[in-house]
Design goal:
The protein is mostly helical. It is built from seven helices and no strands. It is globular, with a radius of gyration of 15 Å.
């Protein structure tokens, strides 16, 4: 996996939705790999922070909103962008957590990202996400 880079930098050279989604996944997984203490502080330690609640701290809401803004375009027609973003993030979080725990083969990291992009953009799978009108975390 490549070093962590800011999302705009990671996705700037991407040509098309699939390449863009794969670049976003690489940026997220790269951050988890190259910033393990920060990643643990955000997602593994119980800091008492509320997630996806009314009292979620603004920086956490802002981070989700930035991801939502990035993914809303690729969610597809009739797909709730908030739920699409939530599922996208959750699957990347699972990949990051399992990789860091040594439960996934490191040599399959890039094919895993490519498969994640393919699955994320399959319209027949996306259609299973209902339009609820709500945005998770807000």
């Amino acid at each position: 996996m490549t070093a962590a880079v800011p999302v705009p930098t990671a996705t700037s050279a991407a040509d098309g939705p699939r390449a863009w989604v794969a670049a976003l996944a690489r940026a997220y997984l790269g951050f988890a790999e190259h910033n393990p203490a920060v990643y643990d502080a955000l997602f593994q330690l119980d800091g008492g922070l509320a997630y996806a609640q009314e009292d979620t701290p603004e920086p956490l809401k802002d981070a989700f909103a930035a991801l939502l803004e990035c993914l809303a375009e690729v969610a597809g027609d009739g797909i709730d962008p908030g739920l699409f973003t939530e599922v996208f993030w959750a699957s990347l979080h699972g990949l990051a957590t399992l990789t860091r725990a040594g439960r996934l083969l490191p040599e399959d990291a890039e094919p895993r990202v490519e498969h994640h992009a393919d699955v994320s953009l399959r319209s027949d799978l996306c259609s299973l996400i209902p339009m609820s009108g709500r945005v998770p975390g807000h």
